[in-house]
Specification:
about 500 residues; alpha/beta; Rossmann fold; GMP Synthetase, Chain A, domain 3; 9-stranded mixed beta sheet; 26 strands
């Protein structure tokens, strides 16, 4: 199935339903379908094999994405925060690109011979263009997304129409939203969560309200003014929303569900959010670009059970990403490929129709049985709850012992004076690597490095005690909250330790 069919189904079922709200623009499903048909005509007339989008999203994201789909072209949204050089390098890696760019980025990406049309001009042209609709083969590439590149050069992940529609139809019931349902979308347009939000909200029949530039107070205001019932945020956003709610308590009577994901969320932050928003059902969603978005979910019921229980095994699940969604299989494997059992830590492998595992210039990296190696360490408990330990590349090897940074981070972040923490390995001629904890203190707090080391030692084996503790004003992260560990290691080399 082509992603174009999702729009056709939505517009046929309820053409007058408000599908998109962005700044001053409001589009029904029929409006979006008409613009996509016209946009396909614009794309066909301008030529190009890949429709690239550089901008902050909003209504432009679904318009340009469905225009590309109906022209049977691959769609690739890029990180508008990158430098001119960075954007140029990614554009040149794409086959025959046609670039649609918000006005403020046109000059940034301008280059001799490069085809560029400003977003407003594209939308205006789509209103008047002769429609051109061509349904792509389900196995054709529908969306290309570059990985964040936190540990290497970004790879171009190829997601087919079948990958994307399998994710949507496997996790969302068509037209299942009730009247008045509205989703607040503030995740970046170049992230898989942004693409997934377009497809899943449209398929469910839910109004999508866009906040193109995140601000916690603006987020709260939109929830109130648009009657938002569900929203998705990344950890850094959740942290700022919680901080704003603590300073200025706000009633959010319509909000029923709040999903968080994109990177690991500290448990103290989750508990604080649950306390501040007691009537909201929280959802932890875990997925990767290569898996077309979410592959595991910790439901609101799971959150409640973990908070209210006296059973430590159930309480521990608040730190999990829940259980796999329908259609997804998971395995935990040892380094030799052996499939591990309950609570055994290894590398997470996943399989399913929504899993791509294919990169431009590289091809498929799925094994012979269709399994994708996520490069995340993980374990599964006896009830099927999945616990993510972090990237296998981030493992610290100290004195021949493998140490997962998350194990230490989960302990240190529970100290009342610690707001954020990231643990990395620093090269050492004797031990191979030393354990270095980068700590962002709670505002107004002044924790002592040795105190934090002893706090960790009392709760972990001695070999897990940080060798160094460094205090920082903030951690270097991506827009979705993932710690840029290479950048952090370079930064720590210049910082004094305690």
């Amino acid at each position: 199935m082509s992603i174009s069919l999702l729009l056709e189904m939505a517009s046929s079922a309820n053409p007058d339903l408000t599908a998109v709200v962005s700044d001053g623009m409001r589009l029904t499903t029929d409006d979006l379908s008409v613009l996509a048909d016209g946009g396909a005509g614009v794309v066909s007339s301008l030529g190009g094999a890949t429709v690239v989008y550089v901008g902050t999203g909003g209504a432009a994201l679904p318009i340009v994405m469905f225009s590309a789909a109906r022209a049977a072209r691959a769609f690739c949204p890029l990180n508008y925060r990158l430098s001119q050089t960075g954007l140029g390098e990614l554009i040149e890696r794409l086959p025959d690109p046609l670039v649609v760019a918000d006005a403020e980025y046109v000059d940034v990406i301008a280059s001799p011979g490069r085809r560029i049309i400003e977003t407003g001009e594209f939308i205006a042209a789509a209103r008047d263009a002769t429609p051109a609709v061509e349904f792509a083969d389900p196995d054709d590439v529908g969306v290309v997304l570059f990985t964040s590149g936190t540990s290497a050069q970004p790879k171009a992940v190829e997601l087919t129409h079948n990958n994307l529609t399998s994710y949507v139809t496997g996790t969302v019931e068509f037209a299942s939203a009730v009247e008045g349902d509205a989703a607040l979308v503030c995740v970046p347009p170049y992230h898989i969560a942004g693409v997934g939000a377009v497809l899943s909200n449209l398929y469910a029949g839910r109004k999508a309200v866009y906040l193109r530039n995140f601000d916690p107070q603006a987020w709260l205001d939109l929830v109130v003014h648009e009657g938002v019932t569900t929203a998705t945020v990344v950890p850094t956003m959740l942290d700022r929303i919680v901080g704003t709610l603590q300073e200025r308590p706000t009633e959010l009577p319509t909000l029923r569900n709040l999903a968080y994901g994109g990177s690991k969320v500290p448990l103290p932050l989750v508990r604080k959010a649950l306390t501040l928003l007691p009537g909201v059902g929280f959802v932890n969603a875990y997925g990767l670009t290569e898996t077309s978005s979410t592959i595991a979910v910790l439901t609101p019921e799971d959150h409640t059970a973990a908070i209210e229980t006296s059973d430590p095994r159930v309480a521990r699940r608040l730190g999990s990403v829940g259980r796999p969604v329908p259609g997804i299989e998971v395995q935990i494997r040892a380094e030799d490929g052996t499939v591990l059992g309950v609570d055994e830590v290894g590398e997470l492998f996943v399989r399913g129709e929504q899993v791509s595992g294919r990169y431009s210039g590289i091809g498929s990296v799925l094994d012979t049985d269709g399994w994708f190696a996520t490069r995340d360490t993980a374990c599964i408990d006896d009830e099927g709850y999945l616990f993510i330990g972090g990237r296998s590349d981030d493992t610290i090897i100290r004195g021949g012992e493998n140490i997962a940074p998350a194990e230490i981070e989960d302990v240190l972040v529970e100290h009342p004076d610690v707001h954020q923490v990231a643990v990395v390995g620093a090269e050492d001629p004797h031990w191979g690597q030393l354990i270095v904890a980068a700590v962002v203190p709670v505002a107004g707090a002044a924790p002592n490095g040795e105190e934090l080391r002893q706090f960790a030692r009392a709760r972990l084996r001695g070999s897990r005690t940080p060798d160094r503790v460094v205090f920082l004003g903030g951690l270097p992260t991506t827009s979705t909250g993932k710690v840029l560990r290479r950048t952090l290691i370079e930064q720590l080399a210049l910082e004094p330790a305690e």
